[in-house]
Here is the input.
Amino acid sequence: MKRYLKQYGIWLAAAVACTILPLVFNSGFAISMLSQMGIAIIFALSYNMLLGHGGMLSFGHAVFYGLGGFLAMHAINWVGDGLPLPLEILPLLGGLFAVVCGLIFGWLSTDRAGTTFALISLGIGELIAASALMLPGFFGGEEGVSANRMVETTLTGFKFGRGIEVYYLIAAWMLICVALMYLLTKTPLGRVANAVRDNPERAAFIGYNARVVRTMQYTLSAFFAGIAGGLFAITYEIITAETVGAIPSGNVLMMTYIGGVGHFFGPIMGAVLVTMMQISLAGITHAWLLYFGLLFVGMILWAPNGLAGIIMMHEPVWKAGLMSRLLRAYGVIAIPTLVLFIGVMILIEINYHLSLSVNPDEPMSLFGMTFHAQSPVAWILSIVLIAVGFFFFRKAQQVVRDSWNEVTQLMKGGA
Amino acid sequence: MLEYVLYSLLNSLVLGMLLFMLSSGLTLIFSMMGVLNFAHASFYMLGAYFGYQITTVVGFWPALFIAPILVGGIGALVERYGLRTVHKYGHVAELLFTVGLAFIIEESINLIWGRNAVTYPIPAALDFPIFTLLGSDFSAYRMFMLLTSVGMFVGLYMVLTRTRIGLIIQAALTHADGVSALGHNVPTVFMMVFGGGSALAGLAGVIGGIFLITEPAMAATLGPIVFVVIVVGGMGSLTGAFVASLLLATIQTFAVGIEYSLTDFFALFGWQVDTMGFLKDIWRIQLSHTGPILPYLFMVLMLMFRPKGLMGKRES
Here is the structure.
């Protein structure tokens, strides 16, 4: 009993959390955010099957997301016209369509990994995005394809008129997909994909065709992306050609990388965090894309293993009971980081006010203070904050490094 | 017809040389560091905006020199403090760093100059038709663009093949360790090449921003095309980049004016295709509408069947 609980407890906890969360955060806004997170989790995990597990950096993953979404959208319309299929399994149709496309594009692009693969994926992405406007029959032209998800045939008896019903559908699909993708990492295919990522030549020597392995991994990843696209179609009831374009492709790349490609749960964290940022920050400031870009570059520079990497780095320290030493150093670096960040933020917000607001002469408000964007005080203050923050940030970096060295020494001594 | 062909040729020459100005820097940077610089088109955009801003203050001619130098300086700083730090995490991190940088540059441009296109007019000294042929004018500005880019091509070629620093760069591209052992500071050479490539992109921006349009989306529109150029030409090959720039510009310029679809093509042989049914969209596409997809089709096919490109010596 205990063994089973240890093994499956985390899945049980996830299922319970998915059930309870919308009951706790029950506003329409929160439920739509949770739905988006669910879709983003599937999409980001499917992307990590390429980048993290297969070593293929793709710039066109949204192709499968979008194609799956378009097919599911057409399928909703067919169901509305009398096709006897329940709405709940339509994302599967999107996934299967993505599998067909994934097999073709996968075989064409996986002969080599590395830069060649990245460029082919970029080319295919741009190709599909550009042809979307030329094929209005499938992509619906400028206005896209729309449908009404409240159809007659359903499995569960839900009518899908309310957001929470859609949320539970997404949550169920998400749990299934996450479990499948996790199990996939345990199968021989998952292991061989890792081998091909790390050393294709040696994998070839023990008898695996790198191209076949990559194509299979690519196709499976397309399948899950297609399911995510299908769920997108059901949630929004409209899908446009932008969904296959470069923006969602870049988005999923950033999500996955910020979460961390080295661990299975990394992309989940990335999807949750980035979706939260997209929705909540976009409401607070127009400059959120810039903050997002700064976060991304900051992660690459200072935490290339992502959020998951940061957490896993601290696991041995936590087990050794030395966390308190590190926390002191983190406290030291938090202050200049905050000062630097506030300085950058003031500068960005002033500039946005000057260049994008309706009337730049109107006073703006920030942190509850109201002032004129042209006033030199604000400019000088922000520049001074940035300079002081940056100077002490460099100093504090040394403190953190020293304390890490100390902890490492202690752990070595203890072992 | 003759007029159409002649002017399309002239225009593709102008566009092609502009593309070459961008792709030459990118291909040099690629062969040196082995990393595709996704921010390269962003340096082009920076060049255009700097050019616009400096033009409004001191005029076009000083801007033509100051803006590329500024962009080159920014490029050198990015190499020194950004890429060099990320280098130890491997190629994927380096590539993603340039992607993030492109993102930040685009948003910063939004931040400073707003989301709409800025008015960046042709300088008055060049705003006249230089010659009239078959009833159409060819503007002096296009001629100026052509001369600038040809001058840049000749200059770059001379520096790379006829000067000492060019020899060191050429050697550092292939045998960095050997050059380092001879006592040259290879990281500084890398920084200079990155800065130089960015400055060329900046120069392309100063003159291309007037020719095309100066807006925050200009990098995202031109960036992928530049990749197509260096892939088709062969990564790391300057001559290849030159040929591919002209080739792509010609294809794009000519495709715009040809209004044939597959239906018309089959009609030539007397076949009447069914223009209804599931594939109806495909039969109706006109060649002039395929302009945006042709370069990518070209790139994907090239990567699949000849990954080293037209004139490249090695695969990525």
Notes: Residues 2-33 of chain B form the longest helix (32 residues). The radius of gyration of chain B is 21 Å.
